[in-house]
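Go through the following before class.
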Amino acid sequence: MSGEPHLLVVDDDARLRALLQRFLTEQGFRVAVAADAAEARAALAAFAFDLIVLDVMMPGESGLDLVGSLRRAGQQVPILMLTARGDPDDRVAGFEAGADDYLAKPFDPRELAHRIRTILRRAAPAAPRAAQAPIQLGNRWFEPDRQELRGPDGTVRLTGGEAALLLVLARRAGEVLSREEIAAALGTPEAGERAVDVQVTRLRRKIEPDPREPRFLHTIRHRGYVLRPGP
């Protein structure tokens, strides 16, 4: 990523949009705003963004609907969702839709900026380090250095959250990681165990021949998850 990260803030509250645009600009971001899903789609068609800050509760197409639609269309830009509803079920719904992080209103703008930077660091190319060999997952191969999953038909699309989760597991392949360890490694320790479970379920759809009978990403009862690569 070069230059100032380009953000799109989508919220139907004009006052909050203005406040976030001013604050995030002061924090060193380039910020565009949209009042609803239709304006967001128009902005996404015209510009490439590094991250979207998206309100859940909007008139017309909701934030959850927009996330799901973007992910189905192959749009992998990281998405941080904002909501006035902080219930764990709401957070899980956001992750299920394909969001990378979730922040409940009211929030401290400094925390929002911190969350944004965490997601952007996670999405950025890894700093030079000892190369890690590709990991075989059946007829697919995950390249940790590029955070890419390749199969017989080319690159398998992963969201930023899915790629980050697979990288965490791949770097400690064969080792059981608790949900708390995974959440901490992803930079979302407050997300909770269910949110990790949701991300695991989404990842299994990408790497497992039959997600109901995992061959590679195993659940270890009362302990957590382990990635066991193999042909």
